[in-house]
TrEMBL record:
Transmembrane segments: 12-29, 41-60
Protein name, as recorded: Putative membrane protein
Entry keyword annotation includes Ribonucleoprotein: no
Gene source species: Luteitalea pratensis
Keyword Transmembrane attributed: yes
Domain of life assignment: Bacteria
Length: 738
């Protein structure tokens, strides 16, 4: 008999729990120590410790692992894969896999098993269904949920309905297969060729994030040749129009080659990119020769707030740059000086709906601050912000998921904003003295002033030009900064993207980023970046590109009060739609009405109602079944008590990739894992003799099927606790304790 705990803590937790129980028992009887003798006091403490230990052990749920009862039914389920991959040619290439499966059931399995068992035939695709016979199989199923089939049949076998299962499939599972799917013995028979086939495949088509870098993007794809070495023509299509054609040499033997394409997605409309390979002679299937990725149309601009410590060239150049960025909606506060009464005065510019809250130099409430996706401080001292404003900014980043950028050398000086509590969410520590060094004096040679780190070479903030060979050269060509602040150590988890030379020639961070809670922070320690714009040719947009990307990066991850998430679904597959709803202060709303309208490519629309998910406050879920290929538009409207809480939209491409034909060869590894985990076996068609005996033996053998039985779930555990508490109570009363 094997006993264990269903919730087994680590050794240190056992020790900590034991100490906590002992201290709790001692604390309960601390005042009684002087009123009764030491032996009596020790006995009461011991009783309380034992009681608490028993309760703790019960909470950890002790269970016994016992053999499952042997199956008593006479039925065997023959489950046949009915998905589209079964229409591919079998190993001999004359008939399809489905035809071969029908022949196996009718010609081999029925004669072998009908004398000993009642046979029932099931078809598995994306769902499991019983069919009258193998002749009812069509091979039109959208997917192959093999793990789901085993799980479903195991539940039915638990009631004594089945003693075994025979699975006939090519192993092309389009959904994840659990490691231990169930206790019903499964005997798998593979159909289709596992090797020696010719097939070309496009996998894992992806596109880089265009929410930060929108002037260009990178489409990547893995290209595979199942078979010999191959040279193939590869095409990249943009919305169906050929954009690039190249020859790629594939090494064969299913080794992938990663191919990259530089593209420029539309800034006003959605774009679909397709990577495709030419069909090979005698190829197993052309259905996997193309893969598609979707770049949605740009959404609403992200509102950001820029707070400048004083007017200057940087302010003028930066606001002029961001004014032309359609991805950002910028409000600006500039401290001008003081009034006749000694109060600070500010220049405020921005959207009329938000600027009324900025007249005092900063938003006054969480609701006013949380309207923004990011806040930028330029040359701001520590005393500019009150303690409440600092606390509000910390919540803005860590809880709301907003972005914070600190720029300008004076922000990192001795009295800079880095010295406030905000410093703990930044990428570097304060230097202390906050020395400012002349970056231009560190090196007078053009091209060595700014050095990208290995992280910076790949980071979207630092991409000034397309092409991997052009990443560093634009930075080498930039004019010198006026100065750069010396800062302290880099915090754990931070990424330094660019360096400049410090006072003694040591490298100092110029650009660094950090994740903080749900949000992001970025710092730029340089001063006088406007010199880049003045010192470069009019056609060079390095200054504009860097600042647009830097501020987009800190802003794009900030969610709206109503946000929606949905994955790109294969056709015929149900995928979840997740909607999060919060108040303007970003408190979760759990009593909202959430309507989801789905518009299909042909214009047909349907409305879904999202239901509250009990696992997370403010999270609502709906299910989307897509049957039409193409771009689907999803519009979400959340309201409460007749008042709108917000709206949002998303676009998703359905049917861009087909998991059913990923590596279309017979997958013996999946079939073996399914069968061996349940006490069955993967069988060759030539080794089916004796299958009846193997099923009967596996069904009667308990070794592969252990079930849990609760040890505590009985009257004895209750009686033990009652007895311990009763004895303790009686002794307390007898010895004069309450």
């Amino acid at each position: 008999m094997d006993i264990r705990f269903a919730y087994a803590p680590p050794a240190w937790a056992w020790a900590l729990g034991g100490v906590a129980i002992l201290l709790l028992a001692l604390a309960v009887y601390r005042s009684a120590r002087a009123r009764i003798s030491a032996p009596r006091w020790a006995l009461l403490v011991a009783l309380r410790v034992v009681t608490l230990v028993v309760v703790a052990l019960i909470l950890l749920r002790p269970v016994r692992l016992i053999p499952a009862a042997a199956a008593t039914g006479r039925a065997v389920a023959i489950v046949v894969d009915d998905s589209r991959s079964m229409q591919l040619p079998d190993a001999q290439g004359i008939e399809t896999r489905l035809q071969r499966a029908r022949q196996l059931v009718a010609g081999r399995l029925r004669p072998l098993l009908e004398g000993d068992f009642d046979l029932r035939v099931f078809a598995i695709s994306d769902t499991l269904r019983e069919v009258p016979s193998e002749d009812a199989l069509t091979g039109n199923g959208r997917g192959s949920d093999l793990g789901g089939a085993v799980t479903a049949m195991t539940e039915r076998a638990a009631a004594g309905e089945f003693v075994g299962m025979v699975l006939v499939s090519d192993g092309a599972a389009s959904t994840p297969v659990p490691a231990v799917p169930g206790a019903l013995p499964v005997f798998a028979i593979g159909v289709g060729a596992s090797g020696g086939v010719v097939d070309r495949e496009v996998r894992d088509v992806a596109v880089s994030d265009v929410s930060v870098v929108d002037s260009f993007a990178e489409v990547t794809a893995n290209l595979v040749s199942h078979g010999a070495r191959d040279t193939v023509d590869v095409r990249l299509l943009e919305n169906g129009r050929p954009l690039d054609i190249r020859q790629v040499r594939l090494p064969g033997n299913s080794q992938p080659v990663r191919e990259r394409f530089r593209v420029s997605p539309s800034r006003t409309a959605a774009t679909v990119y397709t990577v495709e390979m030419a069909e090979a002679t005698a190829e197993l299937t052309p259905a996997n020769n193309r893969g598609t990725v979707f770049v949605p149309a740009p959404g609403l601009p992200h509102p950001i707030l820029i707070v400048e410590g004083a007017p200057g060239f940087e302010h003028s150049f930066l606001t002029r740059t961001l004014k032309n960025d359609t991805g950002l909606d910028v409000d600006v506060i500039v401290r001008k000086g003081r009034s006749d009464r000694g109060e600070p005065t500010f220049y405020v510019q921005g959207a009329a709906s938000r600027t009324a809250a900025l007249v005092n130099g900063f938003p006054r409430t969480r609701e006013e601050l949380f309207r923004y996706a990011a806040v930028v401080f330029g040359n701001i001292e520590a005393d500019f912000l009150s303690r409440d404003q600092v606390a509000m900014l910390l919540s803005f980043v860590e809880q709301r998921g907003g972005g914070l950028a600190i720029i300008g050398a004076r922000s990192f000086g001795e009295r800079g904003v880095i010295g406030t509590e905000l410093g703990r969410i930044l990428a570097v520590e304060a230097r202390g003295a906050g020395a400012v060094n002349a970056a231009a004096a560190a090196s007078s040679r053009q091209g060595t002033r700014i050095e990208l780190t290995s992280s910076g070479q790949d980071h979207p903030v630092m991409q000034l030009a397309p092409g991997p060979d052009a990443v560093a050269s634009p930075w080498n060509a930039l004019p010198s900064l006026a100065a750069a602040a010396a800062v302290g150590r880099t915090r754990p988890g931070a990424e330094v993207l660019a360096l400049v030379s410090g006072p003694a020639g040591e490298p100092q961070p110029l650009v660094a980023v950090q994740r903080a809670g749900r949000g992001r922070t970025l710092l730029f320690t340089g001063e006088g970046a406007w010199r880049w714009r003045m010192g470069l040719a009019s056609g060079n947009v390095a200054y504009e590109t860097f600042w647009r990307q830097a501020l987009r990066w800190v802003a794009v991850q900030a969610p709206a009060p109503v946000s929606v998430e949905v994955e790109a679904p294969p056709l015929g597959t149900v995928v979840p739609i997740a909607v999060r709803v919060v108040t303007p202060a970003f408190e979760p709303v759990s009593d909202a009405g959430v309507q989801v309208r789905v518009e299909e490519p042909g214009g047909a629309a349907r409305t879904l109602t999202a239901s509250l998910d009990s696992t997370e406050p403010g999270l609502y879920r709906a299910s989307l079944l897509t049957l039409a290929p193409g771009v689907h538009r999803i519009d979400v409207d959340a309201s409460r008590g007749g008042q709108s809480l917000g709206k949002t939209s998303a676009q998703v491409l359905a049917g861009g990739n087909d998991p059913e034909f990923v590596d279309p060869r017979r997958n013996d590894a999946v079939l073996r894992r399914l069968s061996e985990a349940t006490g069955g076996a993967l069988l060759e068609t030539s080794a089916l003799a004796g299958l009846s005996d193997r099923i009967r033996k596996a069904a009667a053998s308990p070794t592969a099927r252990l079930v849990e039985r609760d040890v505590w779930h009985n009257g004895w555990s209750f009686m033990i606790i009652c007895a311990l508490l009763g004895i303790e109570w009686a002794l307390r009363r007898r010895w004069g304790l309450r």
